[in-house]
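hiii, so i know i said id send this last week but things got crazy w the move. better late than never?? heres the sequnce for the chain we talked about at the cafe, plus the structure i predicted for it. fair warning i was half asleep when i ran it
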Amino acid sequence: MEAGPRDMEHDAPDAQHEMARLSPDGPDEPQVAPEVEVELRPVRRLRIWQLAPIVTLAAVGSLMFAFPLAFEFGDGGAVVAMLGLLISCCAAGWAMTAARRVGHTWPGLPPRGSGERPDWRVIALYVAVCAALVALAVWRVARLR
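okay and structure toks below
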């Protein structure tokens, strides 16, 4: 029996070189430079339609809080001031929610989803500042009566 063309190619020197490059899974991968990832999406920012109601509510709440405290409008001043404080706090909460949705974080805190733990000193500082502001606001409104 004579050998066919396939058997003859197997003994050729080029075929031997080709067999050395093959692995059980297929041909070896050629050496390529490392890939660089580039973000194609635009940077997420707060838009004007998100900021406008927040800024408006914050300004109205601040004025409602400041004027009764500064000029003492009688017995109703404390109620108006507390309502202004409530509206200002709501605007601040909305602003924080909107900022968090676009990926912003508080200074000193790690980004959401990074797996890092926040530093307890930074959290304690934020809690202390908020508690001091609330205590001063309540004390000032209580002095109106």
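btw The chain has a mean pLDDT of 76. thought thatd interest u
miss u guys!!
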